[in-house]
Amino acid sequence: MQRSDVLIVGAGIMGVSTAYALSRAGRNVTLLEQFRLGHDRGSSHGKSRIFRFSYPDTSYVEMGIESLALWRELEEEGGVHILEQAGGFDVGAGIESNAAALEACGASAEIITGRQAAARWPLVRFPDEGPVLFSPDSGWTDAELAVRTFTDLARARGSVLNEGRRIVEIAPSDEGVDIHSLDGSWSADVVVVTAGAWVRKLVGPLGIDVPVHVTRESPVFFRQAGHAPTLVEWGGELLRYALPDPDHGLKAAEHMVGPIVDPDDDGGADPASIERVTKWVSERFPSADPAPVEAQTCFYTTTDDERFILERHGRVVVGSPCSGHGFKFAPLIGRRLAVLAEEAL
Ligand SMILES: Cc1cc2nc3c(=O)[nH]c(=O)nc-3n(C[C@H](O)[C@H](O)[C@H](O)COP(=O)(O)OP(=O)(O)OC[C@H]3O[C@@H](n4cnc5c(N)ncnc54)[C@H](O)[C@@H]3O)c2cc1C
Q: Is the pTM of this model over 0.85?
């Protein structure tokens, strides 16, 4: 049986950033992925994800600041540009808490009127009433390029990626941990499970409870000339967001409204959500083509308080950092999962 220092199950953004962090520490890493790298059946696919410091909670602002430095480090090492910081807006209920958290962490922020914002950013039609929070550090990451860059750099340091291998069993022992697919087996000192929406299926049989549920979300894409800044509209129960999309111009969606699903069940984007998002885009982005170009599906793996689960259970490290907002922190989360794995080495 092939032996490594660390096995990683799942080559989404969290698995590949962990492999990158461990490979930099000289560890011998093997990644197992049930589909192909960059596939569109999980949570890390597509061309863009919002990057922001702007949260009502200072712990996320601090994580954002730390992650920014790590994204820049990755870009330098890979010779690529992943994170575009063109600024971003928060509008709606509670943005004062975001402004206070940003200020508390020494991050730049500006509260302006909708009229002032519209004058500076004519692609967006802001709400007439109420303040607008501008955060110059906001922007978006090229998700596909991020996954590829972490993987390429980890491989350059000897990490191995096995695609098309669905792990069906994890068997920890005193000597290490063995994992099995239907057609192969691997062993190591420790396994890191970054299996996204499938995490409960994999670690549940080990008696490890990961309190998450899975929903199928429906991002929608629109043609728009020029890139508008990112926009997050907080509205009590409903949060909507929009960001640039390199292919079509604009990506928009509702946050956490999808049906609870089994990730192995097929299913399409939600027509009702597409309709609501299309109406919202016609209000906020008047220059965008009102007819959606396409809609995709993507899984949220969500905890009740939207916090990330990063835990070690003996020789099994579990990383479930999603709740629809984990991508921006990926380089930092990869490091934290690597530290947990190192504890068992
Ligand atoms: C619509 C949408 C919009 C989002 N927008 C943002 C945003 O703007 N900003 C932000 O910061 N975050 C955002 N997120 C969240 C972010 O994309 C996720 O937190 C992140 O991609 C999770 O990565 P992951 O590696 O945990 O999961 P995944 O990418 O799903 O990776 C898990 C991998 O494990 C593999 N796997 C599972 N089981 C097995 C098995 N048994 N054997 C082998 N392989 C297995 C899967 O095939 C998959 O490739 C968004 C998410 C969605 C869905």
A: yes
pLDDT in tens, 29-74: 999 999 999 999 999 999 999 999 999 999 999 999 999 999 999 9
Query: What residue's CA is closest to ligand 1, atom 15?
Result: 324
Do residues 282 and 310 lie in contact, with contact meaning Cβ atoms separated by under 8 Å?
no
CA–CA–CA angle 302, 304, 308 (5° rounding): 55
Q: Say if residues 94 and 234 touch (Cβ distance below 8 Å).
A: yes
Q: Over the stretch 227-239, which tens digit does the pLDDT of each residue have?
A: 889 999 998 668 9
Contact 280, 303 (CB under 8 A): no
Tell me the two tokens of residue 139: 């922007």
Report how far ligand 1's centroid is from the alpha carbon of 196 (Å): 5
Span from the CA of 329 to the centroid of ligand 1 (angstroms): 12
Which domains, from first to last, does the chain contain?
A: 1-52+139-211+305-345 (3.50.50.60)
Exposed/middle/buried for residue 39 (C-beta within 10 Å: 0-12, 13-18, 19+) = middle
Neighbours of 168 (CB within 10 A): 13
What is the C-alpha separation between 314 and 300, in angstroms, rounded? 27
Q: Is 230 in the pocket of ligand 1 (CB under 6 A)?
A: no
Task: Give the integer Cα–Cα distance in Å for 334 and 12.
Answer: 11
Q: Is 242 near ligand 1, meaning CB less than 6 Å away? A: no
